[in-house]
Amino acid sequence: MATVLLAGGAGYIGSHTALELLNAGYEVVVADNYANSSPEAIRRVEKLTGKPVKLYEADIRDNAALRRIFAENRIDAVIHFAGLKAVGESVAKPLMYYRNNIDTTLSLLEEMAAAGVKNIIFSSSATVYGEANPVPYTETMPRGTCSNPYGWTKSMMEQIFEDAQKADPALSVILLRYFNPIGAHESGMIGEDPQGIPNNLMPYVTQVAVGRRECLTIFGKDYPTPDGTCLRDYIHVVDLAKGHVKAIDYILQHDGLEIFNLGTGTPYSVTDIVETFQRVNGVEVKHVYGERRAGDLPASYANADKALRLLGWKTEKTLDDMCRDSWNWQRQNPNGYRE
Ligand code: NAD
Ligand code: UFG
Predict the structure, then answer these.
(1) How much distance in Å is there from the Cα of 314 to the middle of ligand 2?
(2) Residue 298 in contact with residue 229, Cβ under 8 Å?
């Protein structure tokens, strides 16, 4: 069976993908510098699957470290999750974001070329659609103007992949544009473990529910949406991880460059999330309505037809599943991977 290198694979989406790849019979190698993660996540993946993962502590910008990994393993495909992802922090520290995110991509592409590795899947984001495209987003729409440096790094990296693939038609590239991943593995053993104050909605909700934070502020209730709060395409992280397995199956059989939205196609509001979370879990999430957050779009959701057509992938989990599994993880691990 083929071997897949997960760059940044100890993180939230990477750890869930490692688990699904192992369950599908792939060998998995993970390289991560733990900038936003813990090796404990991979230990738990090994426990859940009963299969080993070869784990390297390495910075993906470090060409020498990558060279060693490619020399020691027969890698058939790479999934590039490694990156910094906090939107607000990227506004305060743009150079750190450009340096980390773009350099990881350049080093990976350089060392893949040197080692003759021809398949790469990249974690992109719906944010590249920018502010002007109408929803639902389809992959044929042009990339737009991003509202923050994090978004720009994703847009620029997509361009880098397109140029690299054009220059080397033997290189196969898949750009996966994720919508809003939430939820956790149903065991509650792995999940999202943000450092510091969460930027994203669901970890904030679960930390309020578990008593780590006082109150959720819902950013804006005067948007042109049915209940006045923003609409997003929330996707269960296990569905998302299974999408990566389908993308690996596909890239090992096809050449060229493809872009896929990974979303459900169904938008939910912030109020929907809070109400569903309270209902399915029987816990209260104290919340208040506040000002809009700068840079938020009223609505972002996918047309997910292409992934179904070419990859044979569609989401299976419901919003109830997402809320239940997020809470199951948080309740069992009130402080994440820290004891
Ligand atoms: P995460 O922070 O949990 O995972 C990213 C991993 O990359 C972490 O384990 C981190 O330690 C590692 N990393 C960062 N810089 C590194 C470097 N220089 N060398 C080695 N490892 C490094 O985040 P995630 O939610 O799992 O996201 C994975 C990818 O998907 C990221 O590229 C992110 O931008 C992208 N993405 C995430 C979302 C989301 O909402 N979670 C949405 C769209 C795209
Ligand atoms: N929200 C709140 N209160 C909070 C946090 C979030 O009301 O404390 C709201 C936001 O205003 C937004 C929704 O919840 O309406 C979702 O916010 P998130 O921060 O969870 O997600 P975003 O849609 O803003 O951002 C996500 C990813 C980014 C990606 C972006 C583009 O986190 O990586 O989608 O699609 F760039």
Answers:
(1) 22
(2) no
Centroid of chain to Cα 91 = 20
Report the C-alpha gap between 319 and 183 in whole angstroms: 9
- Residue pLDDT, tens place only, 180-200: 999 999 999 999 999 899 999
The question of whether 204 is a catalytic residue gets the answer no
Q: How far apart are the first and last CA of the chain?
A: 36
Is the Cβ atom of 217 under 6 angstroms away from ligand 2?
A: yes
> 152 CA distance to ligand 1 centroid (A)?
15
Tokens 């990339």, residue?
143
C-alpha to C-alpha distances, 322 to 78, 142, 188, 236, 265, nearest whole angstrom: 28, 30, 12, 6, 15
**Ligand at shortest distance from the CA of 295:** 2
Longest dimension (CA), the chain: 55
Residue 81 Cα, ligand 1 centroid: separation in angstroms? 5
Residue 165 binned pLDDT confidence (cut-offs 50, 70, 90): very high
Length of the chain: 339
